[in-house]
Specification:
six-stranded antiparallel sheet, alpha+beta, 3 domains, Transferase(Phosphotransferase), domain 1, Tumour Suppressor Smad4, 15 helices, Phosphorylase Kinase, domain 1
């Protein structure tokens, strides 16, 4: 792939020195190069170029190199000049040593991450990391084995005060709290009404983790919460967010989870920044295959999730064809083949029987068919993304088809959602409930025209090859998962045997092994 070079070291370095070349890749229009020049318009330039972080390093000759991260371009550090944007000639450095990403976070900020792909690992703030993905905070020091050290500087929030691209950053003093053997940082990854998620360190296992701190509700005992958590700790599957450990403290339960650095599926679908990053049918199929594998594992154990939605599906690492992980089991229920009187989940993803149970407390509904309905809604949204740009909802498109449902879900993330949006959203919820109970799924001409299946074997869809229509077998699967009667609705077992999955099962399994199995080794 041809590269656009922002800078290339002109000074020669003797062959006995390990560092021979520095290559910095810019945005396609090379606009960020102007950011090196002193200018009062620097803030606008950074925003226009989507520049959100820089990594700086000092070369052996005393010069400074800068790697720029944007929302549209990743950076690769390694020894292979054909693959890497920053080349380090050292025998301890792998051909592709690590990959740096900047992605939107669910809260609207930016996540800067480093994915180790090497044999010898990386060192983050003195801690050795190997074969995992880590989040880089402002001021973090990333070091290659026996080689260069890079300092991470976040620009997304602090760029207004910076005039020079090379001005040194002054990160605030980090706040750490020790809980058990873990060190919980002040870096917040997400918040809710009763829980918050922070980045934490696990020194014993040399890894970063997510710490979910749950405040027990009034009348809810910690032993009751811990009993449910212990059940979830037994779950071990590559598409299930793994719980490593728990700690109790006063009225809080702290759950230490597998860290995912790619954001969530909702953000991935709705905030694609360029046409090349839009999700295509082949990628939808690969994501859906993983989702069904994770649900099958849960349902085999008679556990239902009951709050399945794109916001609760995390990307293990950034990038196309991601490994997805089902998360947020706060509403999960063992014995999911039994009816429950507790209605859980977001209205946009509840099945008709769940909606009826909201207003009829004596009615119950079964968890596993509810999960299948929710997965059908997710499939519909993903499949409509290429033509609608940000996806459309099968029932919640009354006002502005491509954005109304997105705004509602974004607002619902607010901790005080019910207090801030009482009247308008109550009316909208009422109309939505009505449509789910009585309405049928609408498959408009676009993107639901019948064309041959998008092929997973192409692996990465380029925008020039992306179809704006959806195959008939994909539509059939979405239709069967969104069947009104839960008794006739497709199960995860039936979905995995659908024509849409079976016609490329070998390719799906191969891709699954290539991209997921190595991470589980």
């Amino acid at each position: 792939m041809p590269k656009s070079l922002a800078t290339e070291r002109l000074s020669s370095v003797s062959n006995n020195k390990p560092y021979s070349k520095s290559v910095l890749e810019t945005c396609p229009d090379r606009s960020f190069i102007r950011a090196y020049q002193p200018s009062t318009k620097r803030q606008k330039l950074i925003h226009d170029a989507n520049i959100c972080a820089k990594l700086t390093t000092i070369r052996p000759d005393g010069g400074k190199d800068v790697i720029v991260l944007t929302l549209t371009k990743s950076a690769i550090i390694g020894r292979n000049p054909e693959l890497c944007t920053y080349v380090v000639n050292d025998c301890m450095v792998s051909g592709t040593h690590c990959k740096l990403h900047a992605v939107r976070s669910p809260s609207g900020g930016v996540i800067i991450s480093c994915e180790d792909k090497s044999r010898n690992g990386i060192t983050l703030n003195g801690q050795h990391i190997r074969k995992s993905s880590v989040i880089l905070m402002d001021g973090d020091i990333l070091q290659l084995p026996n080689s260069l050290a890079f300092t991470c500087h976040h620009l997304w929030k602090e760029h207004a005060a910076k005039l020079s691209f090379f001005e040194p950053s002054q990160p605030p003093e980090p706040v750490h709290k020790r809980i058990g053997r873990y060190v919980v940082t002040s870096q917040c990854l997400g918040t809710g009404s009763f829980a918050s998620v922070h980045l934490a360190l696990d020194p014993k296992n040399h890894r970063q983790v997510a710490c979910k701190s749950i405040r027990t509700k009034k009348g809810q005992e910690i032993p009751q919460v811990m009993k449910e958590v212990k059940i979830l700790m037994t779950l071990k599957h590559p598409n299930i967010n793994e719980i490593y450990d728990t700690e109790e403290h006063k009225k809080f339960v702290h759950i230490f989870l597998q860290l995912c650095t790619g954001g969530d599926l909702f953000t991935y679908i709705t905030q694609a920044t360029g046409s090349g990053s839009r999700i295509c049918e082949a990628e939808c199929k690969y994501i859906m295959y993983q989702l069904l594998q994770g649900l099958k594992y849960l349902h085999d154990k008679h556990i239902s999730h009951r709050d399945l939605k794109p916001e609760n599906i995390l990307l293990y690492c950034p990038g196309p064809y991601p490994r997805i992980v089902i998360a947020d089991f706060g509403l999960a229920r063992p014995n999911s083949y039994q009816e429950t009187l507790n209605v859980c989940g977001t209205i946009s993803y509840l099945p008709p029987e769940g909606i009826l149970a909201l207003d009829n407390k004596h009615l119950g509904y079964t968890g596993m068919p509810s999960d299948c309905w929710s997965s059908g809604v997710i499939l519909y949204i993903m499949l409509s993304a290429p033509i609608q740009r940000r996806g459309s909802h099968p029932f919640d498109n009354e006002v502005r088809p491509s954005s109304h449902w997105i705004s509602r879900i974004q607002d619902s993330r607010h901790p005080d959602y019910s207090q801030h949006f009482p009247a308008s959203y109550a009316r909208a919820d009422s109309r939505l409930k009505e449509k789910i109970i009585h309405g049928e799924v609408e498959f408009a001409k676009d993107p639901w025209s019948e064309l041959p299946d998008g092929s997973v074997s192409r692996f990465l869809c380029q925008s020039s090859h992306m179809t704006l229509w959806v195959s008939s077998s994909a539509k059939d699967l979405a239709d069967s998962l969104l069947f009104h009667d839960p008794q006739q609705r497709a199960t995860v077992y039936g979905a995995l045997k659908s024509e849409w999955i079976l016609n490329e099962l070998d390719d799906l399994q191969t891709l699954y092994q290539i991209r997921i199995a190595p991470n589980e080794a």
